Amino acid sequence: MNEEVKLFMDEAQEQMHNALNHLESELAKIRAGRANPKVLNDVMVEYYGTLTPLAQVANISAPDPRTISIQPWEKQMIAPIERAIMSANLGFNPDNNGETIRISVPPLTEERRKDLVKQARTIGEQAKVSIRTARRDAIEQFKKMAKEGLPEDVAKDAENEAQKMTDACTKKVDEMLLAKEKDILTI
Hints:
By secondary structure, the protein is α+β, with helices and mostly antiparallel strands. The chain has 2 domains: about 5-30 and about 110-185, Topoisomerase I, Chain A, domain 4, CATH 1.10.132.20; about 35-105, Gyrase A, domain 2. It has 4 helices and 6 strands, in the order αββββαββαα. A 4-stranded antiparallel β-sheet has the order 3-4-6-5, covered by helices on one side. It has a two-stranded antiparallel ribbon with strand order 1-2. Helix 1 (about 5-30) packs antiparallel against helix 3 and helix 3 (about 110-145) runs antiparallel to helix 4. It starts with a helix and ends with a helix. The mean pLDDT is about 85.
């Protein structure tokens, strides 16, 4: 395969894998009725005047399926952590005992489960769009290169290879969505 063609194929593949990684991180943030410390990944706490990710000022764990436990490394951080969780608007009500913060994860209603499934599908569709955009960009480059002297059969082979990568990544997105939907709808 032509070196320039390989370069564009690698770039398209990297963009597709970035879309899959982004999808995976976004799906992890959707809570499925069980305690998952990842739902707190985006919570920023004011730490000595600087907004800092919660994971950098406390230990976060899920001791049981209905509880998230947050153990701050400094006791004076309990109040700022509680404020940050409340302002993140995750639907959690933190409770502290002076040393640790506990969050009880309420069971999801049927309506909320359906909303979460819709949210997951929307995120999945965005990932598919990103994957198709990477394919389209690569194919445009191959067509441009064919006009500039790249043999037509090499360009067609590259287009077919880009389509195969797209199909594989789209299938992976569907599998991830199916697993997340099953996770959300499982009571």
